[in-house]
Amino acid sequence: MALLEVSELRTSFFLRSGELRVLDGVSLEIDGGEVLGLVGETGSGKSVTAYSIIRLLKQPGRVVGGHVRWDGRDLLGLKQSELEQEVRGKEISMIFQSPREALNPVITVGRQLTQVLEIRRGMSRQDARREAVSILQSVYISDPASRLSSYPHQLSGGMAQRIMIALALSCHPRLLIADEPTTGLDVTTQYQIVQLLKELRDRTGMAILLITHDLALAAQICDRVAVLYAGRIAEVGPIAHIFRSPRHPYTSALLASRPRLGLKGDIATIPGNVANLMKPPGGCRFHPRCGNALEVCSRVQPSLESMEPGQRVACHNPMSIREAVAAGG
Amino acid sequence: MAIDESRVIVPGAVLTAAPPVVGRFSDFVYQLRGNPATFAGLFIVAVIFISALIGPLIAPYDPYGVNLGDAALQPSLSHPFGTDQYGEDILTRVVVAARLDLLMVLSAVVASTVIGVTLGALAGFFGHYFDEGVMRSQDVLQAFPRFVFAMAVAWALGPGVVTVIVATAAINIPGYARLMRSLMLSVKEAQFALAAVAVGNSRWRLLWRHLLPNCLTPIIVLSTLQCGFTILEAAGLSFIGLGVRVPQAEWGVMIAMGLQDFLQGHWWIYTFPGLAIAFAVLGFNLLGDGLQDILDPKRRRV
User: Fold this and answer.
1) Mean confidence (pLDDT) of chain A
2) A60 preceded by cis ω (within 30°)?
3) Contacts of residue A147 in chain B, CB cutoff 8 Å?
4) Chain A residue closest to B203 (CA)?
5) Cα–Cα distance between B178 and B240 in angstroms, integer?
6) Nearest CA-CA partner of B187 in B114, B132, B124
7) Nearest residue, CB atoms, A147 vs list B18, B190, B217
8) Could you give the residue ranges of the DSSP H alpha helices within chain B?
């Protein structure tokens, strides 16, 4: 059984002007030790999916349907105190974009780490300090003992993200949700952070849910990728399949719009705009922008169907293998 | 040729050099050295504290030694600040009064800070009805002119030290509550607040251990500045007879006593306690301004 099982998750934001259906039946699962990439455009609901899973949604957002099963437990029905004491940090942890803002600006890095260790793992002050040093070492912070007395604004972006990762992993969670962990970092640092995540996964066996809009980044680390469009999963499958033979027209268009080496002429774009979530188009939410659209697409919502082994697509008229390979190029 | 090890530049050395670990006290002294105005403020406040602690021991005369033979003497070598109309030495009384004034001011400021910050923090954090309830009650307190409200409270309680403390604390609570609420509203939306929840902090821990420390710098600065103003307000209440009563050595009372002899030209009776108040207010203001730079990790000298 999968470690995390999200089924038919529906989340809405209740605004004065109406109900914004940000997630409309998202299903995904993550096995232990697996890295699942969740990719999609801005506003497709990637972060909302993550926040819904560990219940960090703020008003006016609310989960209105579906299930989130963690190791057999229903996360959405869990009491607040159980969630805080048993799940967040210990089972599922999370890191964010703009790491410097995710660290408390008036508390030293060392204190932030030792506080977690003292409270969550019941360590004494000395033990916590020693453990903090070794945790910082494991994320390759040089001179960790003296770094403990730094404040977040004294750190570089990459170092701050390493410390954020150290903080998130200090209680040995089994799943790390990384919400755009490399946004705002330069390319070299991005690469280092991704390598670090990969190595930590290999060493500790934790699973990672990587949220990103950067397909190249996803390709570096993910085992499987789920493509999100307007609050629904368009396609999910092993990374190699998705890149080599995308079956959903949206995935295919997304891949075609990547900047590539040796590309002649303009980058292909997807016509139209992202679906209006206040009044989403009927049937498949992508049909107004889709080159493969049939008459049925505007009436009936396609469900996720298996295509290849492990690859599932929600489309009435998926790309044929030949087209798919051409698009994946 | 020997290589001078300290001159060898190691690639990346600059990036990895972490700040040296220094003690808190030596760091504080270092911060003060770069900030002469703050140092002056700290010095003045220290002088007031010292006279509050050991004033009665070092003062040359008995502060309540009535001696009508020496009444209203001009400043001279034996009485540097002169004497009042009962023949009490004014220098002695100015020094001894520091204890009572400081006691009243600190109690009032601590009480109003604690109450105001707690109310403001809870209002900002929980919002909704609690916020409305707290802030509208603060509106009621602020609807009156500050000093008129303090007078009303003092009149209701009757004269005395406790009265001055309660009255000056009461008028300052809304200021703290408002400041704290607005700080809390912005800081609770910060990403580190979300990150703190994501790694498993409870709401109470988030509020007291993560959000509150981020709001404290402006609060401490305001408290320090408020000490100065509270001295004025406490002295004002005593001056109009609603606070501490006449024989007591208290700066406001002493100015009020001087006023009785104003027409006789006995300027020294009210001038020296007045200068003591001005001196104290200046000290707290300089210190308050400087603390802002020292307490904020981003504005500190490195």
Assistant:
1) 88
2) yes
3) 18
4) A84
5) 30
6) B124
7) B18
8) 13-16, 24-33, 36-58, 90-126, 128-142, 146-157, 161-187, 191-198, 203-205, 212-239, 251-260, 267-295
Which among B12, B192, B216 is the nearest to A103, CB-wise? Answer: B192
Residue of A nearest to B12 (CA): A142
Distance CA A84, CA B122 (A): 20
Helix axes of B90-126 and B251-260: crossing angle, nearest 10 degrees = 130
Please check whether residue B14 touches A, CB under 8 A.
no
Token representation of residue B208 = 């007291």
* Percent of chain B surpassing pLDDT 90: 32
Sign (positive or negative) of CA dihedral B187, B191, B193, B194: positive
Q: How many CB atoms lie within 10 A of CB B135?
A: 17
Note whether A56 contacts B197, CB cutoff 8 Å: yes
Which of A56, A143, A151 has its CB closest to that of B198?
Answer: A56
Residues B94, B253 contacting (CB under 8 angstroms): no
| Residue B163 near residue B157 (C-beta atoms within 8 A) | yes
Distance CA B116, CA B137 (A): 12
CA distance A254 to A176: 26
Query: What is the least distance, in Å, from the CA of B137 to any CA of chain A?
Result: 26
DSSP A18: E
CB contact under 8 A, B200 and A85: yes
Q: Chain A residue with minimal CA distance to B215?
A: A106
* Strand locations in chain A (E): 4-15, 18-30, 35-39, 61-70, 73-74, 92-95, 175-179, 207-212, 224-229, 232-238, 305-306, 312-313
- Dist. CA A116–CA A132, nearest whole Å: 10
pTM, whole model, 2 decimals?
Answer: 0.79
Rounded-to-integer distance, Cα B52 and Cα B221, Å:
22
Give the C-alpha separation, B301 to B281, whole Å.
26
Q: Any CB–CB contact under 8 A between B220 and chain A?
A: no
Average pLDDT over residues B153-166: 90
pLDDT computed for residue B280 by the predictor: 92
Decide if B88 contacts B71 (C-beta within 8 A): no
Cα(B302)–Cα(B296) distance, rounded to whole angstroms? Answer: 12
Q: What digits encode the pLDDT tens for the residues B11-59? A: 433 344 444 445 677 777 888 787 888 889 999 999 999 998 888 888 7
Which residues, in sequence order, are CB contacts of B139 under 8 Å at separation 6+? B174
B297 and A153 in contact by Cβ < 8 A? yes
Largest CA distance in chain A: 68
Instruction: Please answer yes or no on whether B191 and A93 come within 8 Å at the CB atom.
Output: no
Q: Buried b / exposed e across A257-291, counting CB within 10 Å, b at 16+?
A: eeeeeeeeeeeeebeeebbebeeeeebbbbbebbe
* CA dist., res. A44 & res. A56, Å (int): 18
pLDDT, residue A328, reads 58
Burial class (CB in 10 A: 0-12, 13-18, 19+), A316: buried
ipTM over 0.90: no
Mutate to test the interface with B, among A93, A106, A107 (most CBs of B within 10 A): A106
Q: Is the Cβ–Cβ distance between B234 and B154 less than 8 Å?
A: no
CB B84 within 8 Å of CB B254: yes
Nearest chain B residue to A170 by CA: give it.
B199
